[in-house]
Specification:
This protein has 296 residues and is α/β, with parallel strands linked by helices. It contains 14 helices and 9 strands. Keywords: NAD, Oxidoreductase. This is 2-hydroxy-3-oxopropionate reductase.
Amino acid sequence: MSNLPKVAWIGLGIMGSPMSENLIKAGYSVTGYTLEQDKLDRLSAAGGTAAKSIAEAVENADVVITMVPASPQVEAIAYGPDGILENARSGALLIDMSSITPQTSVDLAKAAKDKGIRVLDAPVSGGEAGAIEAVLSIMVGGEQADFDEAKPLLEALGKTIVLCGPHGSGQTVKAANQLIVAVNIQACAEAVVFLEKSGVDLAAALDVLNGGLAGSTVLTRKKDNFLNRDFKPGFRIDLHHKDMGIVTDAARNVGAALPVGAVVAQLVASLRAQGDGGLDHSALLRSVERLSGAEL
């Protein structure tokens, strides 16, 4: 029998499925629950156990990990008679890896403490590829002792794992991450349209740009999306729209000006309104193309 903690995983989407599978590969016993049967079948095929409910998934878990789209979903799975807090054992560690508002994380930690459950907010960056390759950046908020306990598990999921401060701090850093990523994608998209309209060899141009100061992880990860107009979702515009709402609201609350971020937030919202919300966030290129006269 493994001495590793038993894990319950709630939410098996684009990120959650490969992340849970990496835990299984690392030797963890993983029981999962999600709404889609095909995702539960995938977990079972990878060596995990499919549960029929949240309560069943978490009842014997030492660690509960959640990875769902937004604050309302976190609240839906955490609270209520069928939720995590009512059914997880006292002393369990809840690691929420969703990207939600900092205040939601703070409130969850307070509510969980009353049940004897410890909480870390631990959102991630790196997209689907980072999840598959287990090279995510994981920004954590919570208590040092809980972080130290969780770190070996988190090391099966990512490469850069940092405790950023008290509850909610991980979400605050993730909001800043999403601001930087959105602005970076927008700049790359504008450069792509500019280069193409100028008649430059786009592949060659992106290669040389990525080798200099303009280079970035965003350009490395999204270069082929731009070149091939392949916008299969690794991280959907819908979710980045949600995240831009989080960062602009949080910035307003602390009195931080985000002039460029506010513009990009509106461009993301516009792209979503035009029906592209289900595409990868590299589809910001489509918005620039439309503004530049293309009919898509």
